[in-house]
Write a structure and sequence with these properties.
This protein is an alpha+beta fold. It contains seven helices and five strands, in the order H-E-E-H-H-H-E-E-H-H-E-H. A hairpin with a 2-residue loop joins strand 1 and strand 2. Helix 2 crosses helix 5.
Length: 199
Amino acid sequence: MTTMTPAPEVLADHTGAPRPWLNMPLTYDQARLGMAFHEAGHAVLSMAYGMHVITSEVIAWEPQPDVWAVTGSTSHRAYFTPPWHYAAQCAAGELAHVTYLMVYGLWTPERAAACAADHDRELAIDVLAQYGYRLGRDHVPADGKSWGMVRGIARRKISHLWREIRTVAHAMNENTVLTGDEIADLTGLVNTPLMAGAA
C-alpha cells in the first residue's frame, strides 16, 4: 500500500468522471483480496473470450493516516469480440467480487451493495452502442439485451472459471500487478497475441 493517491485518471470512469466511492465494511486484507477477485473476474473472462489482456492489478493507498482505499484496473484489447461477450466481461468484476464474499463467508447485504460497479455497466452500454447494439440498464430494448441478461451470461462463465479466477486473484493480491502472460501461465488460458500496430 502506498500513501500516494493515484492519478485522477486512474480513479475516473471511461468518460473521465470520478468513479463513486463506496464504503466496504471489511478489514484492509479482506477488501484488497475482494478487489483482486473483481479484477481477476474481468481479466479471466476477457482472456476466455479471446481478448488480449495487458495487465490486471490491485491499487491500494492510504489517503490519510489510518484510512485506506482500494481500487483496481484491468487493461485489455478486444479484437472481433462478440458484443455480448464484451459486456459479460464488464459485468464479471462485480459478480466475482460478490461471489468472493459468499465463498469466504463475508457476505452481507451492505457488503454486496458496496461491490456495485456501475461504471463497468456504463462502459458496456457505451461501447456496445458504438457498434449498434442496445444494452438496457433495467429493461430489454428492442433487438437488444438487458444488463440483467448480460449478468446471467457472466455468472455462468464465472461458475465455469471460478478456479482460474481464484488462482489469479490470490496471485494478484500477493504480487499487486499481473501481466496477461502471467495470467495465461497461471490458468492455462490463451492470451490472444497483441495485433500488430495495436497499442
